[in-house]
Amino acid sequence: MRLPRPHRHDLLIAFIGLAGGLIMWSFGLYVTGDRVVEQRWATLIPLAVMAAMEAVRRTAPRTALIVGTVAIAADQFTHGNLATVLMFTDVVYAAVVYGTPASARRIPYTTGLITVAITVVLLIWWQNAVALLVGVLSGMLSFLPALTGAIVRNHREAADSARLRAEQTALLAEMDRAQAVGAERARMARELHDMVANHLSAIAIHSTAALSLDEPATTRQALTVIRENSVAGLAEMRRLIGLLRDSGGDAEPAAAPRLSGLAALVAQAGTNGASSGLTVTLDDTRADGGEPLPAPVELAAYRIVQESLTNALKHASAGTVTVFLGRDERALTVRVTSPYGERPGPRAPGSGAGLVGMRERVALLGGAFEAGPVADGDGTKTWQVRAVLPAEERTPEA
User: What's the pTM?
Assistant: First the structure.
């Protein structure tokens, strides 16, 4: 099996250790006086082996530790070299830092047990304080480097975990920001559509009527309706632009439409639809003095009625448009019915965004929404928009 290429820092450490050992060997600086092997050159063999293990301390830490242990044991039978001993401590440290998680957990315990065993055996054998000194030196050569490596590795793993959590937190924050931006854009699109579509639809229908009918009275009436709706639409646009530009938060927010303004909305719709043969009525069966509805519920109900009247102005045939409001302890019911069928005269084009916006508003509040043609008892069909909104504001289920 081909070993990975040694790291350049490990090669530098191996070279420094080998060079230092050679210098001490050349000057006759040894670790022990008692030796089994008398030849001076024998000290160089463990030194060279240990330097080679230093070169692979990062790429093959387990192999470096095993071979290094054999080399340090062999060094005890020669004159001994301090560089060999120091490199062995670094090999033990590297085996814990760069080895497998299992090795990192096992090596400190193993070296600790070996240190204790050596101390106990020497105490029994020698029966003097020198055994304690040898045990301390053994611990400094094996257990202390392993313990240091374990501390360093734990700190590195903790830093990596903290960095990973920070990256995940940043990713989640970016996802939340993107979702918030998307939700805000959808809300702004609904508000813009609901506020302006009604006025623009009236302008489109009456301008078409003014161009197609050559009657001064009809033209003047159409132009009057056009002017009223253009002024109202411009005011709504200015209000929305003001809300978007106000980033300081010091100005008071503009009041949102409430159900108390439905009478004026119905009256305006009746004026806009008079030329198309539409009459608009309001049937509010809610009891006076009841519990007030949450502002989001009132806003959604108002916008649903507004958009339904806009669609009736665009598409409904001549007849009566009825706006119904009813409430019980749990829900507010909004129902708008309009004549269904082919209509004569000018029609304003539709984009289909109105029904989508109404459905989204109801879904955000956790209510129920339906829209479509409904057959009456006499066989005629009417277009009905029906929304059931919770009387108490709540978060919709995900």
Answer: 0.54
